[in-house]
Model the fold of this input.
Amino acid sequence: MKRKVKFKPEMIDNPPPKMGFPAPDSIPRMPTSPIGSNIEELDEHLKKYVQILLDNGADDARIISAREIPQDPRVLLKCHSPRCPFYGVSGSCPPHFSTTFQQAKENLSAYNWAIAFRLDIPDEVIASLTGPGCTEVFATKEGFHQYGSLLRYLWRMGDAAESAAYYDGHYFAINCHFGPCLIGCCEEFGQCQEIKTGKCRFPLRAKPSIEQSFSPDLMKLATRLGWKNHMWGYCAHPQDFPDDYTPFAIGLVLIE
Ligand code: SF4
Done:
């Protein structure tokens, strides 16, 4: 029997960020640790980040060695062949930000640990992500907002783990943001300021394209983690998915 994933309205309806610095009293207070943790502390930290992800809505989160993340040079090509609908519209995406596979390998090899997490997608959301209905995302204001909300909902979980890791002394920790920052950050503006003026509206939020930065093959990673996966696309109708498949979005936090 098909598993019912709980729908939360904020998954598809939450406000885009406001420009400028947040009010000081809205900034959370976080304890800091000395830089340079020993192996026991690191183990404790990684488990803490898993719990943060779960507490923030992830449906599963796994600690893995960064060496287990498969990379493939074709991930770089996938940004423009076939063209991602968001190719060229954000300063964080190619061709404005691009790299080489060699650089992506060097970037990932600098990390030792990662946490892969997943967000299961409820029936109320999946039709806007796969099948003919997902064209609405690119065609309407409501579609943009829904997609932007989902990106923000997903990013927030990993960002919480990234912040905790940073203050624990893992200052290179990064939560990979999948999806265009034009939608996740600049939804209200409709165009990228960085491309126009060289200055990003959300320098503390926008992350460079993870496909370009690390070239991870997330399909292969999900399969290795035992997370059964199916292809999504305009032709893949959600009602054709088998009952034992729960669609999910994947996230990745790199640490150390
Ligand atoms: S200005 Fe907006 S769209 Fe452009 S890089 Fe910054 S966050 Fe992304």
